Amino acid sequence: MGLRHAKTIATRRIHKRLKLMKYHIISLGCQMNQSDTERVKTVLHSMGYSPTDDEHEASILGVIACSVRQKAIDKVYSRIAKWNRLKNRKNLITFVSGCILPSDGEKFLKLFDLVFPMSELPDLPQMVSQYGIVTPSSLQFFSGEIVKPQPVTKDSGAQAGILQPVSIKGMPASLKLNPGVDIDRFWHVDPTYSSDFEAFIPIQNGCDKFCSFCAVPYTRGREVSRPSAEIIGELKQLVENGCKSITLLGQNVNSYGLDKKGQEVSFTELLRLVGQYGDASGHEFWVYFTSPHPRDMTDDVIEVIAQYRCLAKQIHLPVQSGDDHVLLRMNRKHSMEKYRHIMHTIRTLLPDATVFTDIIVGFTGETDEQFENTRKAMEVFKYNMAYIAQYSVRPGAASSRWEDDVPADVKKARYHILSQELLKHSLPFNRQLVGKTVRVLVRGNDRKQGYLSAHTEGRIVVRFAADDNSLIGQFIDLRITSATPLSVEGEMVAVDVEKLI
Q1: pLDDT, tens only, 285-326
Q2: Core-most of 56, 88, 274, 382, by most CB within 10 Å?
Q3: What CA–CA distances, in Å, run from 8 to 16, 20, 161?
Q4: What is the pTM of this model?
Q5: CA atoms of 463 and 486, how far apart (whole Å)
Q6: What is the pLDDT of residues 330-340, one digit of tens each?
Q7: Residue 373 · residue 323 · CB < 8 Å
């Protein structure tokens, strides 16, 4: 065989191997998980893998999980059962990361090849090369010692080129993932953004609030603030590259910097730095944040939003319940009096702002009277959007020790009552937009053929007739022609040609 022919065969083998090196990731849960997924993609790309929408083509299959909702966890179990059946036909690696409760983590270790906290993402290439490894920093036992897994060798029965799992012997029943360790290493991974014009920037990880219904402190650990210089640096790079909509992410964004007093700016000052850059940059963009906690929401946050153009006039302020007694059992650490003050400040300083919220119905012990107080709160605050959830027990959260005593049919009925309450109050706001010209960001094709979908600065969904996909990712002006409770429709006024160039 000639040298040239041998090189040709070797090249073909390399190309064939690269063609097989594909990954498929499923991201469940909140925007933070979506943001985490963008960094996972970067690491996989650095390993030579390319994305595929077809999981049957992939040799690495991953889930960014969410233990906060049982439905999301049920999806994980359903998916891994399917993936493990695929292993009968091909060699592949499965992994899970994200928000994982200790109880779920124990079960996942028996089902997935790799289980790791997001803080260990930079070590993923090493984990894949030693298929089945569980790194010491990812696991913390309540009792006993961590058994260090051994790398796969020929002596362990691995065939050349075939990855084999490593058994972990002596594993105690109780296992605790330690998600907050070395989160700075994770933040130093540059994300592979999912959009050219919309992006998430994580500013914080974890939560110290310990709401009795919530599993986040157990899945993501305690609050850790990302260095403000890194946040501003990432934001500037995004804006310079044409990004139009940026969301600052954290489990409790307005407690940013409290874990590093004297070393970091406060959340208000971080927003001020963003606003000052926005004024000086000459670029048009909107900056959002989610989610704040009413306990830490101060007037100066709202004041700084009112001061700077790029800080979007949209506030997501979870109320969870409109009853003080329920809030106390939820361990929310704020009263309705405090919440009403915040809402009054928003309506005074940001009269055109939209307000979104989160509400839980059927929390343990919630009476008809307490639920009625929540309905009345919706009537008073007139939210533009409310994400309403029927309470479900999450293992590890404090409320899991209490009886889930509100019947499912009662929860469902209360959910529908609040849903109708939302529609009743969101419609008047949308109707007052009719006849006005508003600035919108075009986001993609609408479900209705021949229409594009956009949203206003207040994140009101708008659709308009257009067949020019070059508008996607651009700001344009629309005249609103009609309204429904959760969206409006408009017609194009003019395209800012200069911004399209």
Answers
A1: 999 999 899 999 999 999 999 999 999 999 999 999 999 999
A2: 274
A3: 12, 18, 21
A4: 0.81
A5: 12
A6: 999 999 999 99
A7: yes
Tell me the C-alpha to C-alpha distance, in Å, between residue 482 and each of 436, 459, 464: 10, 16, 11
Burial 417-452 (b: 16+ CB within 10 A, else e): bbeebbeebbeebbeebeeeebebbbbebbeeeeeb
Burial group, residue 42, by CB count within 10 angstroms (0-12, 13-18, 19+)? middle
Q: Angle 299-307/336-349 helices, nearest 10 degrees?
A: 20
**Residue 409 resides in a domain:** no
Amino acid found at 439: R
Dist. CA 189–CA 32, nearest whole Å: 15
Are the CB atoms for 413 and 421 separated by under 8 Å?
no
The model's pLDDT over 14-41, given as tens digits with 9 standing for 90+, comes to: 444 445 689 999 998 888 889 989 999 9
150 shares a domain with 196: no
The residue segments making up the domain with residue 484 are: 437-500
In a domain, 430, yes or no: no
Residue 284, strand partner residues: none
Task: Determine the Cα angle at 380 with ends 379 and 383, to 5°.
Answer: 70
Alpha-carbon gap, residue 308 to 306, rounded angstroms: 6
